[in-house]
Amino acid sequence: MNNSAIKSDDISSKKFKGRMLLIGLVLVFALPAILAKTILSNNWYQSGVTNYGSLVDPAVTFESLDIDNPLFQKSWQMGLVLPEECLSRCVEKLHLLRQTHIALGKNKERILPVVYVAAELSVIPTIMEEFMVVPVSEDFLSHVGEGDYLVVDPLGQLVMSYPNEQEATLAAQSKGLLSDLRKLLKLSRVG
């Protein structure tokens, strides 16, 4: 009788070990999925956005806004939406736009600095002679604000905008624009 008691204890011990192994395997494979679902459903995860500008959403093109695109299928555009009065802050932004273009290095042939103008300017800054001027409509300004930097692809789609910032952050905004342009040009198959 002693042998049968030992065998039943041995069998129940093996069953217990087998069950624990099964539970352990289920936990190893199911626990990451359960944790991921919990984290995502409770919005505890912040996605890793690496761009500094804001994507223009919904997608807008020069064609849909009825604007003539002089650089269609020629090059990327990085520009400044010029306000009605271009004061010292505006001139500083134009200077930073030119410096950003120079900082692109070997990629500067792929992108042109542009100034988007909605109204007739009474005083045109002398620095604007270095930029292509593209006249835009009021509908254009409903998608992008005056004083914003803007990136447009060679097909005329408005890609990213950089909202008008305080003077203290203009240099940081320019660095963000440069970083985003480098990524876009590296990944781009057009232009």
Question: What does it look like?
Answer:
The chain is an alpha/beta fold. The protein folds into two domains: 46 residues; 134 residues, 3-Layer(aba) Sandwich (Glutaredoxin). Helices cover 41% and strands 19% of the residues. Strands 1-6-5-2-3-4 form a six-stranded mixed β-sheet, covered by helices on one side. It starts with a helix and ends with a helix.
Would you report the number of β strands?
6
Measured as a percent range, the helix fraction is 40-55%
Given as residue ranges, the uncertain stretches (5+ residues, pLDDT < 50) are: none
Mean pLDDT: 81
DSSP strand content: 15-25%
The fold-level CATH name of the largest domain is Glutaredoxin
SSE-based structural type: alpha/beta
Radius of gyration: 29 Å
CATH superfamily of the largest domain: Glutaredoxin
Basic shape: rod-shaped
Task: List the secondary-structure elements in sequence, H or E.
Answer: HEEHEEHEEH
Compose a concise summary of this entry:
This protein is α/β, with parallel strands linked by helices.
Question: Which characteristics define this entry?
Answer:
191 residues; alpha/beta; Glutaredoxin; 4 helices; rod-shaped
How would you summarize the topology of this molecule?
Blueprint: H1 2-41, E1 54-61, E2 76-82, H2 88-103, E3 111-117, E4 132-135, H3 138-141, E5 149-152, E6 157-162, H4 170-187
Parallel strand pairs: 2-3, 3-4
Antiparallel strand pairs: 1-6, 2-5, 5-6
Helix pairs in contact: 2-4
